[in-house]
Amino acid sequence: MDEAVMADVRQIPTNIDEKALLRKIDFRVIPVLFIIYVAAFLDRVNIANALTLGLPADLHLNPKTNQANVALTIFFVPYILFEIPSNLLMRYFKPHVWCFYLISFWYKREEAQRRFTIYWCSVLVASMFGGLLASAIANMDGVRGKRSWRWIFILEGIATIVIGFAAFFLIADFPADAKWLTEEEREWVITRTRSDERSKQSIDSRAVLHFFSDIKNILAGIMYFCRCRDCTLEFQKS
Questions:
Q1: Which of 141, 155, 189, 194 could form a disulfide with 148 if both were Cys (CB 3.0 to 4.6 A apart)?
Q2: What is this structure's pTM?
Q3: Burial of 104 (0-12, 13-18, 19+ CB in 10 A)
């Protein structure tokens, strides 16, 4: 064990109830992130539901020219183009302003895996409720002179805006900024996870090459790409 790790071990407060504090962190960190990703995924699938409720006919989309499929695919163009700038901006904003993966800042690696599993289950929840919501909203066809597919975008869009506004106040920032923790608890989290965001490192070509030198990072990217591709194919079959 190197000297840095030994120093960290010595600095961890010993009078902390670890299980109770982890439950406290779970309650403050995981639920809001879960709800945000449910809303984000619902926004992705609502157009697929709208396609089954009269959107192509109302917008005169020609099925023979795959215009609906083009509309679905075009979403990923700005998604890909802005992915890198978005990640760079994370260095300049707090999580409650520019949301990103917080779990690794709050938990050790072996603890984070279970939380990430719960977090990604939000996709299953969104997939499950997306169709149910669309079926319910389908009954609103003609309300206030609007087709049901328009109500999908209106209602789910309003829900996303409300969740985004609430998230600004509810998202837990980095451990060092958590006012709902005591000073000892903050130091305990930072020390055991070694995730003090105040010690920022510059991003240069060496850091990028180091990232891609780890095969796990490459495999994770491929897995995420395949998941997005499956979602796109599912939308197109709709």
A1: 141
A2: 0.76
A3: middle
